[in-house]
Design a protein that fits this description.
Two copies of one chain form a homodimer. The first copy, chain A, is α/β, with parallel strands linked by helices and about 350 residues long. Chain A contains eleven helices and eleven strands. Chain A folds into two domains: about 170 residues, Isopropylmalate Dehydrogenase; about 160 residues, 3-Layer(aba) Sandwich (Isopropylmalate Dehydrogenase). Chains A, B: Homodimer. Probably interacts with PlsY.
């Protein structure tokens, strides 16, 4: 039985959609137990509303953990200490206390990261945790692990090496890639390119025999499936992720608006629907709305603040897959072998 | 009469396509004189081959400046001093000596930047020059000036302020935007977001009354037309630009490959061609292959190393527009008023 705590508060769209996503996911996952964490009244209302639609859901497969406080998407790091009964705090405590196998939330990123670090802490030997979304590629069946996508502002070369090691363990465990190819995100391919961080990280990654280093990779290749993992510091990774999201969304909107301008094109669009659907399925950020905070001593996932039914469903799947593939155990064992100098920074 | 020196060597596709692009552009610009700089034999061969196609071109409207050396796209900064008769060196010297109004090249970026800085130098008062491509947006008639897109690795907050000032002058002169809106590229909208650079730059930009400061802007908005200018350091700007290029190209390829998979969709595609063309025209990087190195005491443009007829045509247009709109004079006057502390760094 897999147990996941689901902080249903704090997202832009309220608890209602989170609960529905949870019930929908339970219907197809009989070995799963969900604990909805948040305001009892809101949760019960949503369950009453949505449960009748999901008839196969066993009523014993979910429960409610009542909390009285919420840290919303604008919440700060300090709220973690101020609001002891916040849903995100209680959810993280459940992971720390091993009452559940994993958790997810769509609340404030800042509060989530700070909370995970202070309440749970890192896997022994891990210097820093990193946000790691799974990004689609144009190559069928291939995905990209991008990290750090924004948990940190600055990182050292040693941290980038650890990120590469952790992502390699994850890519093998979850995506089934045998020797995941690790690329160092950079402004050029030559080893001499980039700032001091990139130059130092290049040397460390090249010398490390536990990973399969591709070399520098420009973010032009972000969707090409050339590598399985792209590693960079949190600031740069966040810029790249948000640029990619923005461009994919803008091109999609542009397509829609061009079609609307010329109604007769709608006839053609009808025939094109399978094409658009196939592309949409691949590149729609809603199917990739979740990111693991990798390096934390527990499976903890963040879903987009604006998550809807589809986004929450995708993040639930990622969380479930991480538990089923024993990502935490594999990371813990892996990082024992990988520790660079044995000293915490 | 506008005079532009065109370094036709050093691009991945050879002089042939550069020459054809030049002749094609001359056909529709009677007030233009082009000087093709490079290997005499190659240039003459290309002229003999392509001139018959462009019957309206006046034979007095172009000339050849012979050079014996080439710095190709892998050329280094040192080549600028080593190869005194390199086409890029001679072309930059023509700008320095005011023999032409502007120049363009598709050769090595590193050699071009170093050459422009050492051979021509900066506009008085300008601390650093910056690569500034013009990026399309989903809003009709609106474009984005992104800088620095990679001329520098690191920048100071003062440099980001100067970049904003120069880009504002350019956006008004070339794009006709009255009070261009300047956004500071960052990982979040709040003033407290980002690294020290972003925090300091935010304060400087906010306090400066010569520019119209929007605040922080996430690169999710890169194509949305929310701002006219996005300013950031060279490393971050290069990452964002290359991510955007990569995603736009991948989505385009995916569309093509999905259509190919199902031949019957081609019927629909025929009807969709105007839609695709409209989007292609907007987002095709070939139409935006050029970038000015703004801050240099002369109009100097770089076209993609892999430029084809379309890309070279677009960069020629940008170069021509910059001259016609007296960008250099306006920048020189503007930066006199803008100089922050009067001292070169």
């Amino acid at each position: 039985m897999i147990k996941i705590a689901f902080d249903v508060m704090g997202s832009d769209n309220g608890a209602d959609v989170a609960i529905e996503a949870g019930l929908k996911f339970l219907e197809t996952h009989q070995d799963l137990e969900l604990i909805f964490v948040g305001d009892e009244k809101e949760i019960n209302q949503a369950i009453d509303k949505h449960l009748p639609k999901y008839k196969k859901v066993n009523k014993d497969s979910f429960s409610i953990f009542k909390t009285t406080e919420v840290i919303d998407s604008h919440g700060s790091i300090l709220d973690i200490r101020r609001k002891k009964d916040a849903s995100i705090v209680r959810t993280l405590e459940m992971v720390r206390d091993k009452k559940v196998d994993a958790m997810l939330t769509a609340g404030s990123s800042a509060a989530f990261i700070a909370g995970a670090q202070t309440i749970i802490g890192n896997i022994p030997g891990v210097k820093r945790s990193a946000f790691m979304p799974t990004i689609p590629s144009t190559v069928d069946g291939k995905v990209l692990q991008l990290l750090d996508a924004g948990a940190n502002l600055d990182n050292t070369a040693e941290e980038l090496l650890q990120f590469s090691q952790m992502a390699s363990v994850y890519a093998t465990a979850v995506n089934g890639v045998e020797k995941p190819m690790v690329g160092l995100m950079n402004i050029g391919e030559e080893a001499s390119k980039g700032k001091e961080l990139q130059k130092s990280a290049y040397k460390l990654l090249e010398a490390d025999k536990t990973i399969n280093f591709y070399g520098n990779i420009e973010p032009r290749e972000i969707l090409n499936g050339v590598v399985d993992i792209m590693v960079t510091d949190g600031f740069t990774g966040n810029i790249a992720l948000k640029t990619a999201e923005g461009v994919a969304r803008s091109v999609g909107h542009e397509l829609k608006s061009q079609v609307k301008k010329h109604w007769w094109r709608k006839l053609a669009v009808l025939q094109m629907i399978p094409t658009f659907k196939a592309i949409g399925k691949k590149f729609n950020y809603k199917n990739h709305a979740g990111a693991i905070l990798i390096g934390i001593n527990g499976i903890v996932f963040k879903s987009h603040g604006s998550s809807d039914l589809q986004s929450f469903g995708a993040t639930l799947r990622m969380t479930y897959d991480a538990v089923q593939n024993q990502v935490l155990d594999k990371l813990t064992i892996g990082m024992k072998g990988y520790i660079i100098d044995g000293n915490e920074k």
